[in-house]
Amino acid sequence: MPSHYDPKKKCRVGTMDEAQFETESDKKNAAYFHGLMTVWSKAGGVFKWGAGGVSLRGNVRGKEVSICFLAPKFAAKPDRIELACTTLTKQIGRDRAGELETALRAAAGEQVLGKTMISIVEPGTLSPAKQKALTQAFLDLI
C-alpha cells in the first residue's frame, strides 16, 4: 500500500516507494536524492523503505546500520536528510560520528540544523561542489 496520512493514527502509514518519493520531493531535491541513492547502491549500501521515506543502510564494522533517512516534504518539514546522532555514535563510534558531522556541516553549512538529531534541509539547493562533498561524507562510512 502506498504511504499516506492516516488521520486516526495521526501519522503516515504504508510503505513509500521510489516513484512516490520522487513525486513528493521538490524537483532539485529529488535529483540530488536520486544521485545519492545511485552512488550509495553502487558502493554496496542498501535501502529500507518506510512510510515517510527511505533509510540508507551500510555495512560498518561488519554490521548493517542505518546511516541516515531521506524524507520528502511533509507537513511543515521540507525535503531533508535526517541523522540520529546518539544512535549513530553507538553504531559507528564517537570518532567516526564526529568526523561525519564535521564533514556534513562543512558541506551543507547553514542547511544543517540540530545537534542530537541533525536535519540537512533541501540538499538539492546546494552548489554542485557542496552536493558532491555531502554525498562523499556519507560514502566515506561504508
- C-alpha termini separation: 31 Å
Characterize the overall form.
globular
Number of strands: 8
Strand order, largest beta sheet: 3-4-5-6-8-7
| Poorly predicted spans | none
Strand content: 25-35%
Question: Structural class given helices, strands, pairing?
Answer: alpha+beta
Instruction: Kindly provide the radius of gyration, computed on alpha-carbon positions and rounded to a whole number of angstroms.
Output: 15 Å
Structure commentary:
The protein has 142 residues and is of the alpha+beta class. The chain has one domain. The chain is built from five helices and eight strands, in the order E-E-H-H-E-E-E-E-H-H-E-E-H. The chain has helices at residues 18-24, 27-42, 85-92, 94-108, 128-139, and strands spanning 4-6, 11-13, 46-49, 54-60, 63-71, 80-84, 112-113, 117-121. The strands form two sheets. It has a six-stranded antiparallel β-sheet with strand order 3-4-5-6-8-7. Strands 1-2 form a two-stranded antiparallel sheet. Helix 2 (27-42) packs parallel to helix 5 (128-139). It is globular. The termini are far apart. The model has no long low-confidence stretch (mean pLDDT 93).
